[in-house]
Amino acid sequence: IGVTHSPDYSMWKKNEYASNGVRDFAEKGEAWALMKEIEEAGEKIQSVHGIFSAPAITSGTGQTSTELEVHPRHPLVSFVVRIVPSPDWFVGIDSLNLCEGDRWMDEVSVDLYPYDAGTDSGFTFSSPNFATIPQETVQEV
C-alpha cells in the first residue's frame, strides 16, 4: 500500500512509533485501518494526492508493479510492503521525492531494507504473536 503526498504527511518514519494502521498491516496484512488513516489525512490537510497498491508476490522471489500519479504539490511517495511470514516486519519507502528541482525523475532505483514496526516481539519469521509492551519505534531489522 502506498501514497503520493505532500511534505506535511507521513505514513511511517524510522525512529518514530508506527501508527495503528501500519501495525495492523505489518502484523496481519489488514489494510482497513491504514486506508482510513490515509483517507483522513487527505481530507483533513489535503496532504494525500493518491493511494496505490500492487499485487502480492506469492513466493520468495518475484516482481510486481503498479502505476501511481504524482502532482507538483504532492511529489513524494511512501509505501509499506508486508513481509510474510514475520512478526511485524516490512520493507518500504518514507517520503521519496520524485521531483528534482523543477524536473520529474525519469527513473528511480532504491534498495529496500527490512524494518521492524516495533509492535510485536517475535524474533524469527514464524514467531507467534507477542505484543511489544510498551511499543517500540520503527527500526531496521
Explained architecture:
It is a single chain. With 141 residues, the protein is an alpha+beta fold. It has one domain (2-140): Immunoglobulin-like. Helices cover 16% and strands 24% of the residues. It contains two helices and eight strands, in the order βααβββββββ. A six-stranded antiparallel sheet has the order 2-1-3-4-7-8, covered by helices on one side. A hairpin with a 2-residue loop joins β5 (99-100) and β6 (103-104). α1 (20-28) packs antiparallel against α2. The longest helix has 14 residues, at 32-45. The protein is globular, with a radius of gyration of 15 Å. This is Spondin-2. Pfam families: Spond_N.
List its traits.
two-stranded antiparallel ribbon, alpha+beta, globular, 16% helix, 141 residues, 6-stranded antiparallel beta sheet, Immunoglobulin-like, single chain
